[in-house]
Design a protein that fits this description.
Length: 327
């Protein structure tokens, strides 16, 4: 099963709901499991890189060696669809660029795996609406959230809290015209129009499928609770962060970066996926530095700026890294 041009979040839903629904039976309420402690690989940022850009538009970081510069645009993980931003600096730097490196977020699943995996998928879709498994207070919050989004209980027919949370996250984003593909989608188009080569990478999630299906209930429930809180907060938090991003206010843009995505790094396979994307992105930027001239890259903000993130790795390899407020 191919799932191109999707983030880890979207791909998880494809995995969870790949099988048809099994017969549904009423489920009793169950108390919420205590939330585990997250091991978030992008929790700590490199403070000196989190600054306000001095040029018009979004903030740019620079990585250089003797004869090459890669200009890096930090991309928000979630933003309004077709959001407006000042592209003057981008279009200036696109001219004559050797390559544009796009976010390494594409996922595919080559196969659904064994018969046992298929049975597990069927079980995820059994047991009736997920809200029947919630305590009364959380159930009321969830029903209110899905009702605002125009969804009925049957859409969340699963016994798995992570699957329910992923579905709610997608419904919340779609219902509020939010996306994780902008501005990369626009940059891809503009690079194509300018005749500049682009670089992307797709990861096969198939080998991690069984592990994802075995994500502990308590961890899945925490992810569900986080996305429910985000849906209750509403889209203005994301819109405000997007406005900050467009104005070069990095700290303001990061205000929306630790929502649902942060718990996905803790699911089985999530941390290794995060590690691979950061390592591969740093390697792609390093490869671009081998060609004299300049190149562009788009990298999700938090993996870009985290300790052991993309910029931290490049700096450790001896490249010069400059923040958006540098001369």
């Amino acid at each position: 099963m191919a799932v191109p041009h999707r983030t880890f979040l979207y791909s998880l839903l494809a995995l969870f709901l790949a099988a048809p629904a099994a017969a549904q039976t009423p489920a009793g309420s169950a108390p919420a499991a205590p939330a585990p402690v997250l091991d978030d690989p992008n929790a700590t940022l490199v403070d000196e890189l989190v600054v306000r850009g001095r040029l018009p538009g979004p903030a740019w970081w620079r990585v250089s060696d003797g004869d090459t510069t890669v200009y890096i645009l930090g991309a928000p993980s979630l933003a309004p669809k077709q959001m407006q931003w000042d592209r003057v600096i981008f279009e200036r730097r696109l001219k004559g660029a050797n390559v544009v490196i796009l976010p390494f977020i594409n996922i595919r699943v080559r196969a659904l795996g064994s018969l046992g995996t298929g049975v597990a998928l069927l079980r995820l879709r059994s047991g009736g609406p997920y809200e029947n498994r919630l305590d009364p207070a959380t159930r009321a919050r969830f029903v209110a959230a899905r009702t605002r989004l125009g969804q009925d209980a049957r859409r969340y027919a699963t016994t798995n809290p992570l699957a329910a949370g992923v579905q709610l996250a997608l419904d919340y984003r779609d219902g509020n015209a939010l996306t994780n593909s902008d501005p990369a989608k626009l940059v891809r188009l503009l690079a194509k129009q300018a005749g500049v080569r682009t670089v992307e990478k797709t990861y096969d999630l198939g080998p991690q499928l069984s592990g994802i299906l075995k994500t502990p209930h308590a961890l899945g429930r925490m992810c569900f609770d986080e996305v429910l809180a985000q849906a209750e907060a509403g889209p203005e938090v994301t819109r405000a962060a997007a406005r900050a991003w467009a104005a070069g206010d990095v700290a303001g843009a990061l205000a929306n970066e630790r929502t649902y995505e942060r718990c996905l790094a803790a699911v089985t396979g999530g941390r290794s996926y995060d590690e691979r994307t950061k390592a591969d992105t740093a390697a792609a930027i390093e490869a671009a530095l081998n060609t004299p001239g300049h190149a562009l890259a788009l990298v999700p903000l938090r993996p870009l700026l985290a300790e052991r993130g993309v910029l931290d790795r490049l700096r450790a390899r001896g490249f010069t890294v400059k923040a958006p407020n540098a001369d």
